[in-house]
Design goal:
Elements (H helix, E strand, L loop, with lengths): L15 H12 L4 E4 L1 H7 L8 E4 L3 H7 L3 E4 L5 E6 L2 E7 L16 E3 L5 E4 L5 H4 L10 E4 L5 E3 L3 H7 L1 E2 L5 H7 L2 H13 L2 E2 L1 H9 L9 H13 L3 H11 L1 H5 L1 H8 L4 H19 L6 H22 L4 H16 L7 H16 L7 H6 L4 H13 L5 H12 L2 H7 L44
Parallel strand pairs: 2-5, 10-11
Antiparallel strand pairs: 1-2, 1-8, 3-4, 4-5, 6-7, 8-9
Helix pairs in contact: 7-9, 7-10, 12-14, 13-14, 14-15, 14-16, 15-16, 16-18, 18-19
Bound molecules: adenosine-5'-triphosphate and magnesium ion (MG).
Magnesium ion (MG) binds next to loops.
C-alpha cells in the first residue's frame, strides 16, 4: 500500500464524474477504487482516456445508487453510469480466474475446452480481483477513502521500469482470453514499454489462438490498435508477432509479396497520418483506415475481374465484396463501415475523370474530402498519378466559373467537338486547370471532416 505522500496521483487529474461515482459509493458504505488505465496513465503523467472504477458493490447495488445507470454485458456484467456523453464504467470485484471451486455455481464461470473464459460473473474481494487483471501496470487501485494506491502485483515498479508484464502464467492467461495478445501489443505500443520476455515469448507462438476470438470483438480491438494515436507502433508489432496475419490474412500476404511495396507504403503513410491527427485532437474515421487496408487486395482482384471483361466500376465493387466477405470471418467490419468504404473506393475511379461538368459534381459529394485525401496519399506512394492529385487540389481553389472552364471538354482541343461526357481514360495524365487570377479560397466548410 502506497500512501498519498509517496505517489503523484492527484484528484485534480481525475474526472469530476469519476470522483462523483467513487464518493457516492463510499458514502453508501462500499469500497471504491480507481483502477486500470486511469491509475497507470496518471502515474506516468499522461492523460487517461477514461476512468474505470472497481467496487465491492454488486451491479444491482450500483444501479440503485445511480439514476443514470445501465447494466451491460453478459460475459462480464458491468454498470455504466452516464453523465451526458461521458460514461464511467463501474466493475464489481471478481473472483480469480484460476480458482476451480468445488461447489460453486457453474453458470457464473464458464470456460471452453481450450481454457477460454466465456463468462465470469463470480464476485469476490479486491485481493481476488487483482489476479484476473491482465498486466501488472493495469492492476493498480487508487483508494478514494484515503488516496492510497494498492499494488498487489508489483505494478508500480514495472511502470517505473517501463516493463509490460502479464500477471500469472503468461501462456495460461493468453489461453483464457487470446485478446490479451493484442492488448499486449496495444499497451507496448502506446506506453513504449518493453515486453518482459516471458510475456513476450507466447505472443508469436499463440498468435493462432486469435482465430477463436469472435470477429466482432477483434474489430473493436483493431480500432483501438489503429485509431488511438499509436497506429504505426502497433502495426509494426502486429506484423512482428504474426498477429497481423491472423487479423488480415489477405492483406498480410500481399504486403509480404513483391507487389506489396506501394501498399506497405500506403498503409504506413495512412497510419502516420492518423497518429498525427489523433495527436492534434482531430477526428479520425475507421472508414478511411479500413479502405486503405483493403485497397491492395481489392485493387488486385478488380484488375483480374477487369481482365475477364467486367467494366472498371463493376469490377471494383465485385472485388470489394469478395475481399471483404472473406475478411469477415477474422475481423468483422460492420456494414456501416463497409458501405462507405466501397463508396470511397469507387470514387477513386471517378476521380480519374477530369473533363465534363459531371466532374464538378464530385466536389460536392459527402465523401469527397476523404476520397481526395485518399488520392493524395496514393499519389504520394506511387499508386496514383501525382498530376491527377494536383488537378483536384487546384480545382478546389478555383471559383465556379473557373472550375467550369477547367473541366471544359473543349479545352485544348476546341475543334474536335468532344462531348461533355467524354471520359478520361484510367490513369491518363490529366490536364491542369487554368488559373486566371490567383485568389486564395478556403475549402467549402463542412466538406472536410469525414
Ligand atoms: P485504456 O487506456 O485503453 O483504457 P485500460 O488499461 O483502461 O486502457 P480497458 O480496456 O479500459 O484498459 O480495461 C480496464 C482494465 O480492466 C484494465 O486495465 C485491466 O485491468 C482490466 N482488463 C480489461 N480487459 C482485460 C482482459 N481482457 N483481461 C484481463 N484484464 C482486463
Ligand atoms: Mg480504460
Amino acid at each position: 500500500m502506497i500512501p498519498r505522500p509517496e505517489h503523484n496521483i492527484s484528484r485534480a487529474n481525475i474526472s469530476r464524474n469519476a470522483l462523483k461515482v467513487m464518493y457516492r459509493l463510499r458514502d453508501a458504505g462500499y469500497q471504491a477504487f480507481l483502477v486500470g488505465g486511469g491509475v497507470r496513465d496518471l502515474l506516468l503523467g499522461r492523460e487517461p482516456k477514461d476512468f474505470d472504477i472497481a467496487t465491492d458493490a454488486h451491479p444491482e447495488d450500483v444501479r440503485r445508487l445511480f439514476r443514470n445507470c445501465r447494466l451491460i454485458g453478459r460475459r462480464f456484467r458491468l454498470a455504466h453510469v452516464f453523465f451526458g456523453r461521458d460514461i464511467v464504467e463501474v466493475a464489481t470485484f471478481r473472483a480469480s480466474d484460476q480458482e476451480e471451486g468445488g461447489d460453486e455455481d457453474d453458470t457464473l464461470l464458464v470456460k471452453d475446452e481450450e481454457g477460454r473464459i466465456l463468462r465470469d460473473n463470480r464476485y469476490g474481494t479486491i485481493d481476488d480481483d487483482v489476479w484476473r487483471r491482465d498486466f501488472t501496470a493495469n492492476a493498480l487501485y487508487y483508494n478514494i477513502e484515503d488516496f492510497s494506491i494498492w499494488d498487489y502485483a508489483g505494478g508500480v515498479d514495472d511502470i517505473r521500469a517501463g516493463v509490460l508484464r502479464l500477471i500469472g502464467d503468461p501462456e495460461d492467461r493468453y489461453r483464457e482470453d487470446p485478446v490479451r495478445l493484442l492488448r499486449a501489443v496495444r499497451f507496448a505500443a502506446k506506453l513504449g514499454f518493453r515486453v518482459e520476455p516471458e510475456t513476450e515469448q507466447p505472443l508469436t507462438t499463440l498468435a493462432p489462438l486469435l482465430e477463436s476470438v469472435p470477429p466482432a470483438r477483434l474489430f473493436d480491438e483493431v480500432l483501438k490498435l489503429f485509431l488511438s494515436g499509436h497506429g504505426v507502433a502497433s502495426y509494426d508489432l502486429l506484423r512482428r508477432y504474426g498477429h497481423f496475419h491472423q487479423l488480415f490474412p489477405a492483406v498480410d500476404r500481399l504486403l509480404d509479396s513483391e507487389a506489396g511495396e506501394p501498399y506497405r507504403a500506403l498503409l504506413l503513410a495512412s497510419l502516420q497520418n492518423t497518429d498525427q491527427r489523433v495527436a492534434a485532437d482531430e477526428p479520425v474515421t475507421p472508414v478511411f483506415l479500413f479502405s486503405v487496408l483493403m485497397w491492395g487486395p481489392v485493387r488486385r482482384r478488380a484488375a483480374e475481374l477487369e481482365e475477364a471483361g467486367e467494366p472498371p466500376i463493376q469490377a471494383l465493387l465485385l472485388a470489394a465484396d469478395e475481399v471483404m466477405d472473406a475478411q469477415q470471418s477474422q475481423v468483422a467490419i460492420p456494414r456501416r463501415i463497409t458501405a462507405p468504404m466501397k463508396e470511397l473506393m469507387v470514387t477513386q475511379l471517378k476521380l480519374n475523370r477530369t473533363r465534363g461538368k459531371r466532374v464538378l459534381g464530385l466536389l460536392g459529394q459527402t465523401r469527397f474530402r476523404a476520397a481526395y485525401d485518399f488520392l493524395c496519399l496514393r499519389a504520394k506512394v506511387g499508386d496514383a498519378d501525382p498530376a491527377l492529385a494536383e488537378f483536384w487540389t487546384q480545382l478546389q481553389e478555383l471559383d465556379e466559373a473557373q472550375r467550369i472552364a477547367a473541366v471544359d471538354p473543349g479545352r485544348r482541343r476546341p475543334a474536335d467537338g468532344a462531348t461533355e461526357e467524354q471520359p478520361q481514360a484510367d490513369g491518363e495524365d490529366p490536364a491542369r486547370p487554368r488559373r486566371r487570377r490567383r485568389r486564395p479560397r478556403r475549402r467549402k466548410p463542412g466538406g472536410g471532416t469525414d
